Protein 1
Amino acid sequence: MPIHDQSYRRYRGGKAMPGQAWTVIARAGIMNMIRKRVFLGLLLMAWLPFLIRAVQIYFAANYPQLALIAPTAETFRQILEQQDFFVFVMTIYVGAGLIANDRRANALQIYLSKPLMRTEYIFGKAAILFAFILFVTLVPDILLLFLQVLFAGSFAFLSKNLFLFPAITVAAVLQAILCTFTMLALSSLSKSARYVAILYAGILFFSAAIYGAMLAITGSTRLSWLSLGANLTQVVDVIFRLKPRYATPWPVSMIVILGLVALSISILERRVRGVEVVT
Amino acid sequence: MHLDGVTVIYGANRALKDVTARFNAGAVGLLGPNGAGKSTLLKALLGFVKPADGRMTVLGLDVAHRPLEIRSRIGYMPESDAHIPGMNAVSFVAYCGQLAGLPAVDAMQRAHEVLYYVGLDEARYRNVETYSTGMKQRIKLAQALVHDPDLLFLDEPTNGMDPKGRDEMLELIRDLGHNKNVNLILSSHLLPDVEYTCDDVVVMDKGQVAAQGPIEQLKGPAGRVFELRIKGDLPAFIDVLRAAGMECNWTDEDVMRVFVPDGASRGTNGQTANDQAVLFGLAAQHGVQVRHLRPSIPTLEDVFAKALGEK
């Protein structure tokens, strides 16, 4: 007679109510990324500009002769813009395989046979990329704002530029939403993460190239809405109360961004299914 | 589990046509040739495809209105190769447990238990992508079992397995259905698999239910099916047998299986004759030599052939 029955046993413990599976997906995805050394290296690289800026703010706050490099409201906009490269790399590295790899391994039918809705699956996957993008945009920028207060020893700068908190938050969140949903939609279209990465980079560069060509022909920046990157730049400039750098009205840029997000959600709605129906 | 007039349409193709069926508790086989609609039926029950018409209830819950509650109580082993990429077996199964609502610690414990149960305990720390076909079948069963479902959907669970692995998989399924009180629906086109593991069967053909009920009941009483080989005008004799109310199905080159239903051996005087004597009598009347006549034990193959009307 066995001391301990190791065959199949019924489970007597409790189960969570449906609706929390997206946290499981997000947590597993984030942990899976953090385990990769290459990715950790990329995260460290993405925080290097933060260190440089922190040093800049420290010296400006402590040495009056360096007032020339003292941060302004625009500095915090520039920091976000400097992070664009890392956001691009991270979006490709983290996002390309999020759904494409699941499609390659037929994992969708495993996921959707569990008690979770399609929206929960998409939300969980989106949370992974969203979190990492905010980690290299929102978090360092807000931290620098705190460091400014800390190093200067006064709230003068902050109280004068109180709008920076919501501005940084809204701008970073808008960028994260755009990148996350665009990448997820592309990832749902293919079973190859590599192909998705090329497609994403291609769309960004191609749209910028088209705008560049139109700019050269017309000599006007009115067609900046053709470039995905320019649309984001235009709206973020307005959020930071800066003079927009393109002639396109910012609501038009905003409409393009929202339209792209809506299109991405529509693609995800069609592509994320437990069964692929070929008619 | 009940299906009431369920129709599923893929584009112009009607995959399920007005299917009405009842799946009793225990182990039920879903039998049918490729393209019969078995997998579509399971996917409709899981909510992967929405029926154009009809109503389905699983474990007493309406599929259209309470899909999450249903899915938290069922386990699904898909037909095709499926896993979460980049995970080893124990992480994968524990992850599936957490997706189904188990706390992380319980999910990990259950993952170890079910991996031991399906025979993957030695390979549990290997990446699933390095597994053989047979091991992938076992891991799919493990992920379906980890949250202790009340009902298991097994879609072609022995596909691609070697004979030993297949026997072991069937043994597991039989154990689950008969000793562990797990209700299961085994979708397969392999009759011996269903016959070995299930008590009831639903036979599907061309998107419709061709037969359903307990296997033993469908097979009918022993001794009313005969293997018959003759010498003579075979097509004419088949017509004679059919005219006498019997059914004939080919098994291989020259042996046919003859079903003798109640009443077929009843004489004009109302008395029931011996079945073999009736067959001999018909052969003698039509100048046909009987070279081989043997009572046959009805199998699920007979039920299947009868349901699908194979000639």
Protein 2
Amino acid sequence: MNILAMLWNNLRGGSRTMLFPERPKVTKGFRGLVRFDPALCTGCAICKMRCTARAIDFKSGKGTFTWSYDPGQCTFCGRCVDGCKSHALSQDAECPPVYVTIGALKTAYTVARKPAPKPASASPAVKPAPGGTA
Amino acid sequence: MNLWNKLMCYSRRRSPWLFHMNGGSCNGCDIELIASLTPRYDAEQLGVRLEGSPRHADILCVTGPITHNAVNAIKTVYGQVCGPKAVVAIGSCPATTNVFIDSRTLDGPLNKHLPVDVFVPGCPPRPDAIILGVAKAAEILANRAANKIPVEPVVMALAGSECGEACACAATPDADKVAVPAANEVKP
Amino acid sequence: MNLNLTTALARFLIFPGLLFAVPAAWFLLWVERKAVALMQGRIGPPFMQPFFDFVKLLGKDTPPRVGAAGMLMKLWPLIAVSAAAGAVGLLPVLPSSGGFEGDLILLLALLELPSMCIIAAGFSSRSIFGEIGSAREAVLSVAYNVVFLLAIVSIAASQHTFRLEALAQLPASPLRWLGVLAILVCLPAKLHLNPFSLPNAEQEIYSGPMTEYAGPELAMWELSHGLEWVAATGLVATLAAPHVGLVWLAVLLFLALSFAVVLLLSVVAAATARLAIDTTVRFYWQVTLIFAVLAVSSALFMRLLS
């Protein structure tokens, strides 16, 4: 008679269904679409190397580079985010959207390379010690 | 459009019957598809029924990157689904073969063989995303019956949560456009 | 009052025939789906769902059918719908609806026809799934029909009447309740519900014999399934209802009892899983044996008394 008790509890307790189009909140640490911050990117292309699905593409241009990402190809593993030393990549904490045209979610950014930091010409810091050991 | 056609469009949107085919998937997406029929997500509230025969279904849900073994089966079953029909590619695999890109056991993404109407990305996509994809496919069927092309993002507006004005489904951004990064970003 | 042509047409087409039975069929299909869903902790389909399913199916293409088998495939769903609608039309819902001697036999025959059509349809479809489904349906049909027919015919024979109206107006007796119980035991098998839903292969709508059906033909099969619901639950309702003189009260009682029977069947369907064919057949033959003994002995007893 256990099953009848279960059915009665279900009838009494109401349904646990989320009415469409309500969606449940995703868990903490959910890995969604990858977001790119061009201000932080140094152009090392480690993300392209680490990407398991070849969703990230990196092309070098003259003084610029183009970072492109195809969420349709992505498997949302997060290796790119983990490997980015400058924390330019992050993942959305929500589900990727549904789309109808192939390639609809692709994004691409062309970023100008930052000039390399030059060492300061007159540095007041290091003076060789007179006659001391190195 | 006369009354019968209006009723037919409305019924097509309110009664999407699915047939599920596995094109070589790891079964993650298949499990999430079945999970969408469980009490928490309850696809039946939209009238969705998982059917046992392709002849009964309107919407063919395909999972998996299409392996060589699966190609003929999927094409045959697509032919057996009676029109009007729609195809939903569930997961990233049927859309782009995902991590199995360039594998020699595969025969291309799904849209190499069938016209795909809706892509539900994710690895695996959550059951609520799958239900949203199926609802969108039902919407497409209804609009096709009404001869309205292209499909307006009505479902996304109903969803409310994700889509704002710029809907990913309606716009296809240019992937190699050189521009200021912030303006090039596509909001979900 | 005997049944003349106008009354017969009115009962077949209007009440309780097609005009009432088709919306009632959709309503009962919805009640079953909704009740099972609520008991499973879900919310289930919206109220108009069976109607939307029906309209949508009318708008789909059918695969091309060739030859005599194709023509037969188109025929079976129509026969099933007409038989089920006729069975509903014969039910003595209204107190003075008339009837004719032997309409009980006609009702039982008409209630059998949809199952026969399903069996024939599975074989006509020339698909192996259809053949397996039809074979299962045939085995199941033989098993539960023995109980079903035995129970009803023995009640009728003991009361010296084969007229539905007379049977419905009988005072309550243990034999009548026995008959109602027998019908209730057979209904899950007749209506393809758990635990005896074997011919469906796996879905609520028969997928075994129905595998090759699509579009408007499938809509007709769904409709015949709904009408079978109305006829079967209506039969239980008319046999179980006490006889009242007022028309509106009779109709209300009929509807309420049908609703109650549907809820009971939904509880059974939600609480059980599908049984395999050998268990199902064994169950029915065992029940048959018990009912045979009970029914024959009570029939003899009643005839001895009268």
